[in-house]
User: Fold these one by one.
Assistant:
Number 1:
Amino acid sequence: MKKYPSTIRDVAVEANVSPGTVSKFVNGTQRFSSEVENRLRETIDRLGYRPNVVARSVATGKTRTIGVAILDIHNPHFTGIVKGANRVALQHDYSLLFVATGESQKNERQLLEMLSRRVDGLIVSSRMPDDALEWMRQSPKPSVCFGKLPDTSVPSVGAEGYRAAYLIAQHLVGLAHKRIAFLGFPGARWNAERIRGIHDCLASHGKSLSVFDVEQPSAHGGERACSRIMLVAERPDAVICYNDLIAIGFMKEAQALGFQLPKDISVVGMDNIPFGEYVHPALTTVDMQSERMGEVAMFKMLDCLAGHTDKGFAMLQPELVLRASTMRRN
Amino acid sequence: MKKYPSTIRDVAVEANVSPGTVSKFVNGTQRFSSEVENRLRETIDRLGYRPNVVARSVATGKTRTIGVAILDIHNPHFTGIVKGANRVALQHDYSLLFVATGESQKNERQLLEMLSRRVDGLIVSSRMPDDALEWMRQSPKPSVCFGKLPDTSVPSVGAEGYRAAYLIAQHLVGLAHKRIAFLGFPGARWNAERIRGIHDCLASHGKSLSVFDVEQPSAHGGERACSRIMLVAERPDAVICYNDLIAIGFMKEAQALGFQLPKDISVVGMDNIPFGEYVHPALTTVDMQSERMGEVAMFKMLDCLAGHTDKGFAMLQPELVLRASTMRRN
DNA sequence: ATGAAAGCGCTAACAC
DNA sequence: GTGTTAGCGCTTTCAT
């Protein structure tokens, strides 16, 4: 631990200029006589002066920090988002104030309020009981969300869940599947639109969809739901899972139950988390562009902060990722 | 977006008291006549006053924020750390300023310096070219690191890598393996100690160890290294990987190469990431207590901030997790 | 128990 | 170009 950090005033005194001058120099707000410039440069690194960003923040009202709230940092879909956001933030000299809202006894709303005070804007991925959304609209700080929102006053970015689901269903139908099931998580905001996508596609082929639920949108949740789906008379020959985590859990349990995958049942996930590639059979899924979503969200945020009132929804296109967990029926 | 947030002064005026009084009330620094107390309480929530934490920070010099720097947010070992740290931080009304150092063109040192200015302390998990360590020692803010450090002036927490490695080796020897290999990542700070652990154990049984390297400590790295290990005359009958990610990649590629696991080769990883359970065969590994590490690191940090100069190394005990990727030779 | 006043370190508007 | 002067919103002695 070293001596007390020097302030702008220390520099001013040492260099025989005024604090204001030092400030302007440090921020490149103005040009200087090379005389002063040199003196300043020299003093600054002799003293090892570094601006105090906190003090700067109270003076300017800007923190150059973006708050990022996500549910579960263990879900690679979310870490993808954070990764993308982090990258863009760094490029623009912003930092990320992070909170995993799933981890707290406090309610989400409270957490967001706390976060909000320390940042210039909020990027939020949450279950969002809609009152949080109302709160965001009221907030003086800009927010960006994920998924298509009921109203467009809060900008958001999402991959088109309906289309993603439709694509998967189409793929499965093309593979001649007869009985398709969806293993969803009712607590998730995009559950319904995914069901619609699948349903619409199946309906256009004269097929129906059976829907099952997990209790948790995790691998463990998928494991626990498996037997309910597999150990019945007319079991499905394909199951579409709400996300990859669920799919992976489901596959493990199905195999433990003695089923052969994809021979006995085709399984597909959604998100395209990196691990999908490493399970057996490799998981067919649809890429929901997690990392890109984080990037775009941060770009939108920077836009808001720049005053562009560009609001609105940015739609990313999902992409089918065909691997080995699906196969043609006959 | 709503009206301007009210300040401590607005409250003071409305309630006919001085700003100082409001401050003391808000911070519970003092007791008040119930008269004033009620007036204050009423005005505060009528105005919806919330303290400005940034201004408070410049006045107090404390931010109630801890910086967390990790390399790769996609590695579940690291997200485990963040998760643990986040939980403890939240419990103590601290926030996490997060940066993924692997994501930036800027060097780590610079990133840390930036972070450092906005937080009360730093929790750092990094490749750390040791100059970063020197920097931390010099820094006026407390830091805590992961792993046993060359000197003890910076507190740190780690799972005993030597012991973890020893345990694994012992397990493999007990399973009658003849030719054991280590697939390491030389860039990692704990590579050497893990090698030592394995080596010492093997040596005590009169066995030797062959060491291979990956280029990246990721699943992809493991995949790429696989053929170098497997496609040789006297291939090993067991490989210990530097981490689970590598192990998972290795297994996938080995299977793609036509090998049967664990019949042809036993594979073991380190970390115990949640996914290890879901690959096939389920990965035998050793739990390095990621989440607990994050928690303990944060506790140590809080201790430092409380002035307890408790420094030193906290050692977590690794635990063998036996699954299906290893089997007895004969 | 309450108020007055002096900062915290920095920025920004204005003067010279 | 450079200096002066107010703040930013809050905390914290020190009086009263």
Number 2:
Amino acid sequence: MPYQDGTYGCPVDVAVQMISGKWKPRLIFELQGQTRRFGELHRLLPGVSKHVLTVQLRELEKDGIISRTVIPTIPPQVNYNLTEFGSNLTPILEQMIKLGEVRISKEKEIKDKDRGEN
Amino acid sequence: MPYQDGTYGCPVDVAVQMISGKWKPRLIFELQGQTRRFGELHRLLPGVSKHVLTVQLRELEKDGIISRTVIPTIPPQVNYNLTEFGSNLTPILEQMIKLGEVRISKEKEIKDKDRGEN
DNA sequence: CAGGATCCGGGCCGATACTG
DNA sequence: CAGTATCGGCCCGGATCCTG
């Protein structure tokens, strides 16, 4: 959202706002190239409650990152997809995965070293 | 941090933990290839208090992303740098900037369209 | 100059119960 | 199945004042 003078904030901050939320990056990741149902996402993210999951999904939808499609059957079915705009987030996720892996292997080293010293 | 069974979480979540914090991505961005002093960072991020800035810097330091160097002059001088490990975050920042720019130009379009309709 | 100490408010997140 | 409704805790972030 622009300031009153019509200017916009730093691109970094803008991006931060879009993906900030404890589960959003994970959700975007799980929706890469796949349609997922609500319950599916709920199972894929152990620890998230349905309430919080709903809120995060709604925010992503409002930001134009994902789309939500309701199929009015009984029982109902709701599908989530990445939008075209949302696919712009893919490179970020890829880099986050790389970073996470680097970090994990670094921790493994430390742990292995500690074991060697005891 | 690993679980008790020695396994590690999803790389995405690990990365999220590292960069989550309202000002962290901005701080990492401002430290790309440059040494910066505390006051400098404080001026570069309008809106952040010294207290919060300190906390965020300390967390980044604890995670091994930045280094903190004190030069005991009067008045004191404290320099911050990205560590070698921290430079692993550069690709993420680049992608976040791209994303932010896409988003900003998209909002500009909408605003221009609205102006045309009124 | 670069913080530490203290207080505080909000919203982020989660648990539980209920529903079309 | 895919949510809503309600409640509550807790921590993040901010304001203010103080210091070597």
